[in-house]
Amino acid sequence: MPSSDSISQPRQATPEFTDMVPYKSINEECGVFGILDRSSAGLGHTLYFGLYALQHRGQESCGMAVFDNHQLRLHKEMGLVNQVFNEHVLDSLTGQVGIGHTRYSTTGASNLGNAQPVVVRTPFGALTLAHNGNLINTDSLREFLESKGYLGHGNSDSHLMALYINYLLNQGRSLKDAVKEAMDACEGAFSVVIATGDTLIAARDRHGLRPFCMGKTKNGALVFASETCALDIVGATYERDIMPGEILIAELDDYYTGLHLEGQGRIESFFMEGPKKENLCVFELVYFARPDSIIHGHSVYNYRMNLGRRLAQISADTEADIVIPVPDSGNVAAVGYSRESGIPYVEGLIKNRYVGRTFISPTHELREKGIQLKLNPLKDVLQGKRAIVVDDSIVRGNTSRNLVKMLKDCGVKEVHFRISSAKVTHPCFYGIDMSNKKELIANQMEDTEAIRKYLGVDSLVYLSVEDMVSVAGYDAPCTACFSGQYPAGTPDDFAATVPGVSV
Ligand code: SF4
């Protein structure tokens, strides 16, 4: 069973990497959805479809919280959206304001206690919060809240955000001021939706690390979602992305007064303190977001297509008979490669659609099982062929190595591996599970030739970070896991700070 520890190549002399212990935190990649809708009798059903479209962002637990005339109704469980909710449960989730969450976590944190939305009891009633991203100053937030006697059940960074808001409300702040002050104090990645009895709030971190958008349904209901594919499924029209550092608040009566008088629901927009810059995670574009989502006004599908074209341009001297994707994440880039190179695109690997993404399974054992169960080669198509095999990334290398062996075993003559991203060399502190540098093959083997030999492929080409950024079409996406440049800093930068003073 190959793992990072079984890689036979000597490790590069990079002591600052090899000495590093895995970052201990609740790294998560999640989907969030929020809705304010006075006219809908079936708020739970709308939330269900929104979460269903965001299932790819988290498959361990999910939940929703709705307020019906200020009365909180909450349902969350471990499992997929269609396992956790049924007609009976959804029928009971009526209301006017609601938020939902799909969650993925790393080892140790996959339990119902950390499922979201989180709930805190404030002096003004219940407040619920759902969070996508990962905070990097959790230690100082936790210490601060502990010193004020505010730690309770739940240990996630999302709980800390909700508790911080509650602490500030208890100090006499208005809801708006409490949310702003709490968000000012949070460092790292967060796209959050917050609901109270009559108010829906969205907030995005100052670097805009995780995607977050706003839309409206035909009847004027306000929707916030991690990706536009969740707007589409509930019949909402995309209005715009939520800006880095922006907080949006919509109060039920006020929103609808505006809607009736001016045709525009009244939403208050204001910003957190400190510098803001758009540093959206480039990995969202490469891999994580759904290809039918629009981010920054650009289609994720087109981005991946252009990555594939770029790969073909820099591999122009490679002769091959077919281009095959590693489904599903390599599909679009493989089409781009084929169009640019003129080499026919074929489906050479059939995916079992009922196996989750191996990349985000919570334990090593589950990941290994996932690899074996996931793909089956089409021998008739592949035998005797020189194949360009397109994948989105190589993280640990074990999946790719098993895949290459499978292709060679079924008679593929040559495997030319083409990766539509750069080498993943550094961990992500902003919410995607690749937290241990020692697990990253490109961190352990800086040389492409060593990785090629380890994988057993005839040739191996990655894109460069510059390629990814130029194709993205905006200035400064986060590329930290490829470049080591962390736009929002790392946990070490905030280890000894007091919340709120760094902004
Ligand atoms: S480190 Fe990588 S995965 Fe994490 S936010 Fe940056 S680009 Fe995305």
Helix content: 25-40%
Count the E strands: 21
Average predicted confidence as pLDDT? 87
Which class do the helix and strand fractions yield?
alpha+beta
Largest sheet: 7 strands, antiparallel
Q: Can you tell me the CATH architecture of the largest domain?
A: 4-Layer Sandwich
CATH topology of the largest domain: Glutamine Phosphoribosylpyrophosphate, subunit 1, domain 1
Give the name of the CATH superfamily of the largest domain. Aminohydrolase, N-terminal nucleophile (Ntn) domain
**Which ligands does the model contain, each kind named once?**
iron/sulfur cluster
Radius of gyration: 23 Å
- Give the class-level CATH name of the largest domain: Alpha Beta
The number of distinct structural domains comes to 2
> What is the approximate shape?
globular
Percentage of residues in strands: 15-25%
Low-confidence stretches: 1-27
Question: How are the strands of the largest sheet arranged?
Answer: 3-2-4-1-10-9-11
Q: Give the count of helical stretches.
A: 19
The end-to-end span amounts to 46 Å
Short summary of the structure?
By secondary structure, this protein is an alpha+beta fold. The protein is built from 19 helices and 21 strands.
Question: How would you characterize the overall build of this protein?
Answer:
The chain folds into 2 domains: 31-280, Aminohydrolase, N-terminal nucleophile (Ntn) domain (Glutamine Phosphoribosylpyrophosphate, subunit 1, domain 1); 295-483, Rossmann fold, CATH 3.40.50. Helices cover 32% and strands 21% of the residues. It has 19 helices and 21 strands. The strands form 5 sheets. The protein has a 7-stranded antiparallel beta sheet with strand order 3-2-4-1-10-9-11. Strands 5-6-7-8-12-13 form a 6-stranded antiparallel beta sheet. Strands 16-19-20-21 form a 4-stranded parallel beta sheet, with helices on both faces. The structure holds iron/sulfur cluster. Residues 209, 281-283, 428, 430, 432, 478-481 line the site of iron/sulfur cluster.
